[in-house]
Amino acid sequence: MTQTEFRRAQTLMIYWHDGELTAENYLESRSTDAEADNAVAVDAQAVELLEHFTDWSTVEKVAAALGEFDAASVRDAVLALADAGLLVDRTGAQREERFLEAWHDWGEEARFFHFGTRNTIYTGDSLEQRRADARWVRETGGTPPAIFKSYPDAPRVYLPRTFLPLTDQFGQVLTRRRTHRVFTGEAVSLAQLSTALFYTFAPMQLYDAGDLGTLMLRTSPCGGARHELEGYVAVLDVQDVPPGLYHYNAEAHALELVDPDFDRARLHRLTYESEMCTPSAFVCFVTVVFERTMYKYRHSRALRVTLLSAGHLGQTFVLTSTAVGLGAWQSAAFRDEELDEALGVDGFSEGVLYMFGAGVPVLGETGMPAGITRARLTDPGRLVATHPADVPAGGAAG
């Protein structure tokens, strides 16, 4: 009889959890019908046993190498590790190798998060359903977190509520939107800033969610209407607003001064010397107030929803900016810890996630952003494999 060979999983994470050393193969398939925890507690002997399967081996070979242990107990331990997904057979290794080849450019952090949060169960009496139920939240969550953040002692700039009309046809705004990197240097009007911030961050309505408290409804969708995203604005060249770093108070539609000395040099440093960010008239930094999401959703998959919400918010900003005559961009390239510090947040209860900005754009003859040429005669081969040198600095136009 052919002896089954095993190898230690290459998608294995080991970490401390609640005082126990815990191991998990994040690539292990999860049922979408029955709840199961892929993570298992392991002891020193289990870790030592895994070391014997760095390369392909059989139960019999390992049992012989561990002569001080009963062969039957070694076999039971090996099969338990295989059942937990910590050891894989040849079939499992083929699946693992296909995955590692497809994801070879991304590190362990992205792999663990994406595959470790797959196949969460959302039906019936599942853990995720129970944890999102309003009654369960009320019984275990305490007081709902505040939906608005404010700096009550900070100097304020109250923004006008006479907004620019968004009367352009939607299709025109949608197709006119491009990522802009070159700006004229003209000051953005107060009305343009006010309109862009209001329709991006401010509530359109308030919603009585019962046990979950009062929630805001923005123009952008957000899982559970948690709206965990806050806006901070670096004002660089806006009419009637002193330059500096502000928090946008969504309830009062006002800018609250955080740092009057924040300038382009600071922005240049925080955004890795970006030639797109620094010339902007204003830049919005988007943070996550994690408690707003965690209060209702207490499963790691909820972080996916927060990331999606940030994308929704960014799209609303760039479309609104386009509609009021601005050129906008969005990026995630910044020095996280330094930017957290600049905003005055700790990175744990609230941390920076995204940024976008705008200015008066420089347009080319065709209406495209300056420096971008509309394709004419195109070699189909170049649509498949384009040399990096052919892509404009900073990436494709978007």
TrEMBL record:
It comes from the Bacteria. It comes from Streptosporangium carneum. The lineage of its organism: Bacteria, Bacillati, Actinomycetota, Actinomycetes, Streptosporangiales. This is Dehydrogenase. Pfam families: Nitroreductase. InterPro entries: Bacteriocin_Proc_Enz (IPR052544), Nitroreductase (IPR029479), Nitroreductase-like (IPR000415), SagB-type_dehydrogenase (IPR020051). Residues 175-359 form the Nitroreductase domain. SUPFAM superfamilies: FMN-dependent nitroreductase-like. GO terms for molecular function: oxidoreductase activity. CDD domains: McbC_SagB-like_oxidoreductase.
